[in-house]
Amino acid sequence: MRRALVLVASALILSACGAKTPPPPTPEQAAALRPADAKLAALYETSCHACHATPGTGAPLVHDRVAWDPRWKQGEAVLLDHTIQGFNAMPATGQCVACTPGDFQGLIRFMAGREDSAK
Predict the structure, then answer these.
(1) Residue 11 falls inside a structural domain
(2) Is residue 1 part of a domain?
């Protein structure tokens, strides 16, 4: 019993030391977020913003790490494929005919709150 308590306490302490997931943005914050890159910001505005900045659409909100982290764990290649091919309610190419695979990758990273993952 004592050993179990020590293990639980250790697990709690270690989990408290890990990086915290930032809280989801408010609807107002989500609506105001844009990529820093001007080209990506324009593409985001015309293709991604309508769903990914609007609560209730079923799309994960921009910078909502709670929603994006499970998707991110699938890998960027899977997310890119889902974006280009379409997946569930996500239309193929997110209806962005002007987007290149590199643009999609930058937009995915931005929306997932993973801009720091750029290579």
Answers:
(1) no
(2) no
For residue 37, give both structure tokens.
Answer: 């890159």
What's the CA angle centered on 113, arms 55 and 69, to 5 degrees? 80
Q: For residue 81, what is the domain's CATH number? A: 1.10.760.10
Residue-range definition of the domain harbouring residue 75: 24-117
Q: What's the 3-state SS for 56-110?
A: CCCCCCCCCHHHHHHHHCCCHHHHHHHHHHCECCECHHHHCCCCCHHHHHHHHHH
pLDDT in tens, the chain (119 residues): 555 444 444 444 444 455 688 898 999 999 999 999 999 999 999 999 999 999 999 999 999 999 999 999 999 999 999 999 999 999 999 999 999 999 999 999 999 999 887 65
Q: Into how many domains does the chain fold?
A: 1
